[in-house]
Design a protein that fits this description.
Number of helices of chain A: 8
Bound molecules: iron/sulfur cluster
Structural class of chain B: alpha/beta
Oligomer: heterodimer
Distance between the termini of chain A: 36 Å
Shape of chain B: globular
Shape of chain A: globular
Largest sheet of chain A: 7 strands, mixed
Helix content of chain B: 25-40%
Strand order of the largest sheet of chain A: 4-3-2-1-5-6-7
Strand content of chain B: 15-25%
Structural class of chain A: alpha/beta
Number of strands of chain A: 7
Radius of gyration of chain B: 21 Å
């Protein structure tokens, strides 16, 4: 996993609530047995005017000019500004894979769906919760100022605007540590092999039916 | 010891290590695996040279991509086929039991777990699928995980997770005739919203919930995720134990007695305190129909499509407007005036035997309306299918003009060949009415099996209580 420390990135605003994982990456792309290459199909149904299928070359498909990601001013954005309950719906990790593959590194929203939020951290993506009023403000700024960028400082847990205004955000200590180091959770958990084995041994006595 | 909720008890009995930073290592008893969210996890194991920690805790089944007709001919779509073949290969390589596509026990992962007794009270159950919440109906702690976590559970039998807040949703009183667990689930989501349970583990309680069958409780817990909660659960009672007893993977003899003694303790203590409480009066719940593109956009079948002007705040106004445009509906249309093109009875929400019986009971010798192009019944598993055939339900459905299919996820998410065409409107017993969920441009209305059957007969939504 790619480590995340500091980011100075262009912001793209996606102004709708309850963006679900079917919208982030439609189900036909879930047939892949790979983990990469989902970027061109991020928001496929909103981004293109035709129907996308897996394995199709996307560079010559008709783009929906209305969709925000297609506007030239937001090209190469790395920070997605979103509304409440972003990432609701299914558990598909293809959603953060698609965002990451597209080039998004952080998402700022007033709230996220739980599974999506969790999946982001496993893939080097930083989901940041800021209060609704602040998010409103950022939407107004990004829509009125072409080239609007934000700085994200994960060690200090701060988002700062071009005028130097700073917003604190919270992030769980364990997740922060893993993200800063780019660490794989499995390796960390396997440091507790003794504890897992001890638990299992005791459980085998008290609940033998679980081990049939 | 202070009073504990059911969730506290499940959490504590599976705690391997409190990491002191808000996260904890939680032991996982049962791991359900399907073809869509597992290939990259197995690949990860292989690349790291790891083995499953306890392969016998896992059970795999292909369900999302499988065809529901002409199954013996195999899967036509090469991409779908490769995904199912990859599951077969991975299970063989890592020693995981799999019910393959042509096994009589194959079915939707959340239907076969309980059916086989792989889901037992007091377990932690995970699956790379958000509707894993279904299994909470057994007094289990069950929740969906992402693919990285699938790999993590395979490799370590644990998850790094943090304790959720607790919420109790009590439904008190008696449900009226024609009102089902699906209507209760939709009414709850209508009341608290699709993010109402975010960050919480929901316990469903109250006399109306105790009155539900295990099938009904599964329907309800299945939709906990649509209320934003990763897990939903119902306390153990006699119904739970009666359902589990005699299932292929359930304990027997002395071990059953030992298990039962513990399972009986899996209820919230009387004076347990929840972080949040919601109460609904069962008598006020009527059959529900969703009108929009989120499960919270739901109304009583007796109501009209709402007017965005009445949405309250500006954000909601925009959401409602967009939903109505997508759904091709105008404000103030009575829901019973909405005609449907297709009817889908199936999915992990409503494809169990009781659901099929409820739908069949509505038919009573009538036939589907001419404007309904397709009405299909997709049983949740091969065993549900067989049972329904033994009861003659398939004959009732086919005589009414419904198609009787093979088990799988089917048009719940349209990963196989079963899908809506752009603009088509569907009465569906599934759980998500998101844009494009059942096919690009498709319009989904979520309803109970009885309501879906009634809509197929009438050609439009009707109040099943009067039908
Ligand atoms: S039936 Fe639908 S919701 Fe259930 S597991 Fe299959 S795709 Fe998911």
């Amino acid at each position: 996993m790619r480590a995340f420390t500091l980011l100075d990135g262009l912001v793209v605003p996606l102004d709708r609530a309850n963006v679900d994982t079917d919208a982030i990456i439609p189900k036909q792309f879930l047939k892949s047995i790979r983990r990469s290459g989902f970027g061109p199909n991020l928001f496929d149904e909103w981004r293109y005017l035709d129907h996308g299928e897996p394995g199709q070359e996307c560079s010559n498909r008709p783009l929906n000019p209305e969709f925000v990601l297609n506007q030239p001013r937001y090209r190469d954005a790395q920070i997605l500004l979103a509304r409440e309950n972003f990432g609701c719906g299914s558990s598909r990790e293809h959603a953060p894979w698609a965002l990451e593959d597209y080039g998004i590194r952080a998402i700022i929203a007033p709230s996220f769906a739980d599974i999506f939020y969790n999946n982001c951290f496993k893939n080097g993506l930083l989901p940041i919760v800021l209060d609704a009023a602040t998010v409103d403000r950022l939407f107004a700024d990004v829509q009125t100022q072409v080239g609007y960028r934000l700085k994200i400082d994960l060690p200090r847990q701060i988002v700062s605007t071009p005028t130097g205004e700073e917003f604190m955000f919270s992030v769980d200590a364990h997740r922060k540590y893993c993200l800063l180091q780019g660490l794989d959770d499995i390796g960390l958990t396997l440091q507790h092999v003794d504890r897992i084995e001890a638990y299992e041994a005791q459980r085998q006595k008290t609940a033998p039916w679980l081990f049939g | 010891m202070s009073a504990q909720t059911l969730y506290d008890k499940l959490w504590q009995s599976h705690l391997v290590h409190d990491q002191g930073d808000g996260s904890a290592l939680l032991y996982i008893d049962r791991h359900l695996v399907h073809e869509v969210t597992s290939p990259q996890a197995f690949e990860g194991l292989r690349l790291a040279g790891r083995k499953p920690w306890r392969a016998s805790s896992a059970i795999a089944v292909p369900d999302h991509n499988v065809p529901t007709t002409h199954r013996s001919a195999g899967i036509v779509d090469p991409v779908s086929r490769l995904q199912v073949e990859t599951l077969d290969k991975n299970c063989a390589e890592f020693g995981i039991v799999e019910f393959k596509m042509n096994d009589a026990r194959q079915g939707i992962v959340h239907v076969i777990g309980p059916e086989q007794g792989y889901t037992l009270p007091g377990m932690t159950v995970v699956c790379g699928d958000s509707h894993t919440s279904t299994h909470g109906a057994f007094g289990a702690l069950a929740f969906g995980i992402g693919t990285s976590e699938v790999e993590h559970v395979l490799a370590t039998q644990c998850l790094v997770t943090r304790k959720a807040k607790s919420m109790r949703v009590s439904v008190e009183g008696e449900l009226g005739a024609g009102v089902t667990a699906k209507d209760v689930a939709l009414a709850i989501i209508g009341a608290i919203g699709t993010a109402g349970g975010t960050g919480h583990a929901i316990e469903f309680a109250g006399s109306a919930i105790r009155g539900l069958s295990m099938e009904g409780r599964m329907t309800l817990c299945n939709m906990a995720i649509e209320a934003g909660a990763r897990s939903g659960m119902v306390a153990v009672d006699d119904k739970t134990l009666d359902y589990v007893r005699g299932r292929p993977a359930a304990p027997t003899g002395e071990i059953w007695d030992q298990a039962e003694a513990w399972w009986r303790t899996l209820v919230s203590d009387e004076d347990a305190v929840f972080d949040c409480e919601v109460t609904l009066d069962a008598a006020t719940i009527v059959p529900q129909v969703t009108w929009g593109t989120s499960p919270e956009m739901v109304a009583a079948v007796t109501a009209r499509v709402p007017d965005p002007a009445q949405a309250g705040d500006e954000g909601r106004h925009k959401d409602w407007q967009r939903a109505l445009t997508y759904m091709g509906l105008s404000a103030n249309t009575p829901l019973t005036d909405i005609a449907v093109d297709k009817v889908f009875i199936g999915s992990c929400t409503n494809s169990r035997i009781e659901d099929l019986r409820a739908a069949a009971a509505v038919i009573k010798g009538r036939t589907k309306a001419a404007n309904v192009k397709l009405a299909m019944v997709v049983p949740g598993s091969g065993l549900v299918k067989r049972q329904a055939e033994e009861e003659g339900l398939d004959k009732l459905f086919t005589a009414a003009g419904f198609e009787w299919r093979d088990p799988g996820c089917s048009m719940c998410l349209a990963m196989n060949a079963d899908k809506l065409e752009p603009g088509e409107r569907c009465a569906s017993t599934s759980n998500r009415n998101f844009e494009g969920r059942q096919g690009q441009g498709g319009r989904t209305h979520l309803v109970s099996p009885a309501m879906a059957a009634a809509a197929a007969l009438a050609g439009h939504f009707v109040d099943v209580r009067e039908y």
